[in-house]
Amino acid sequence: MAATTQNTREKMLEVDHISVHFGRKRHPFIAVDNVSFDIYKGETFGLVGESGSGKTTIGRAIIRANALASGEIRLDGKRISGKLSAEDDRQVTRDVQMIFQDPMDSLNERAKVGYIVSEGLYAPGRKVSEEERRRLVDKALLDVGLLPEFASRFPHEFSGGQRQRIGIARALILNPKFIVADEPISALDVSIRAQVLNLLSALQKEHGLTYLFIAHDLSVVRFICDRIAVIHKGHIVELAESEKLFAHPLHPYTKALLSAIPQPDPIVERNKKLLVYDPSCHDYSTDGPVWTEIEEDHFVLGNQKELEQYRKEIG
Question: Whole domain around residue 299: which residue ranges?
Fold first, then answer.
């Protein structure tokens, strides 16, 4: 997916200095700390990091499943976080949908596929006839490469890849603007991962969708994402266009993630140097880190000494 310059792009989602806390107010666990980024209309924005880094927490905050401790999230310039009116809440549900990580756990085993896909149509404020519901379900299943007659079956009758397609159809049926894809292929067999990625790309073009694509595998996000943000323990440490990030990774954590990507050449794989990120490499005791645009559309977190080194690396 070719990226265009930010100056010609329209902001769809704005994540503005958000923090998410869990646990007791006196001793909260800070899962996401003062995170900001923008996602532009029609792009796929990648959010990458290890398990527990805060990726899914941000995705769930966008769909309003996790409350914010501070900050604001806006869709098309309109606030969608915090307390909303009933009508605005319904509108956010229609506009923002999520594809979940595990297709084996995210579908109701006791419900037929037709009901699972169309469940959002039964939300308060929507009046859809049974005939219209069936038509929309058939179209959503066809859009993801499944037959309409599958609507009368149960989830356990399908493979993992087919179940994930059902989950994608469930997200599509409300005709959303924005989709949070939370590691949508990590639970699938390697042989069908590319099929699901290609399906997501095709649906994006057909429906004009915008994605937040959450993953821990940088090789996957390089294939599908326009821009990538790297997150570590609730902080975004680097953000750049996909190819720029791979060509000039700056933050030590980004370099460590890139070094872990498996190489198809067994000789290269055997001889590669695996980097281990050690947070103690940063000395922020007297000079704290700041979020800086180190080159055009390439942002990194670092103190003044580190930023000088990063500029030298870019040349």
Answer: 249-315
